[in-house]
Amino acid sequence: MKIGILGTGSVAQALAGGCAAAGHSVTLGSRHPESRTDLVYPVSGLEETARNAEVIVNATPGASSKELLDQIDAAVFSGKLLIDVANAATSSYELIYPGSSLGEKLQEMLPEANVVKTMNTCAGKIFINPSSLEPTSIFVSGNDASAKNQATTLLKDLGWPEDSIIDLGGISTAKGPEHYFVMWACLTKAMGTTALNVRVVR
């Protein structure tokens, strides 16, 4: 697949590496692509990256994701899978959308896109290499079944076993894993590492 990852930070770079290793074509999207000559993967402007992608990933800082994606022509997202991996929180880990989630806000803003929330409950080094831990869980939320299947296929390409992937339901359920980010921040501070994830025990 041709995957366009909006963002050039550590999460975007980790995901780019994982997707490329799985055989996908990857481009990173930046507001200032000319300044990112330090990156291993091709870098284009945000809109160009989204336009040329079959699958778009929002890996921009969650606090500014809506503002950044609003700079892109909404028609570019029409009919495409938009995977949201960002967490909308302040630097002190307070939720920006305490009654909702960034995934829901992006779906409202881009009604013609198929938004799927996933890969936001663990660090990038974990979601591209899940076997680095004991078996853990990862979640998907979205309104479109086909889009969730496509996102699930990508998760499997990254090494997630099928029984580790939990479909929570529609995009309204995205608030669950996004609100968990507060707990994740507490855990990483308490345990002194980001090499952790949550596991659902049945």
UniProtKB/TrEMBL annotation:
Residues 2-87 form the Pyrroline-5-carboxylate reductase catalytic N-terminal domain. It comes from the Bacteria. Transmembrane segments: none annotated. InterPro entries: NAD(P)-bd_dom_sf, P5C_Rdtase_cat_N, STEAP_metalloreductase. Gene3D superfamilies: NAD(P)-binding Rossmann-like Domain. Keywords: Oxidoreductase. Pfam families: F420_oxidored. This is NAD(P)-binding domain-containing protein. It comes from Paeniglutamicibacter antarcticus. The lineage of its organism: Bacteria, Bacillati, Actinomycetota, Actinomycetes, Micrococcales.
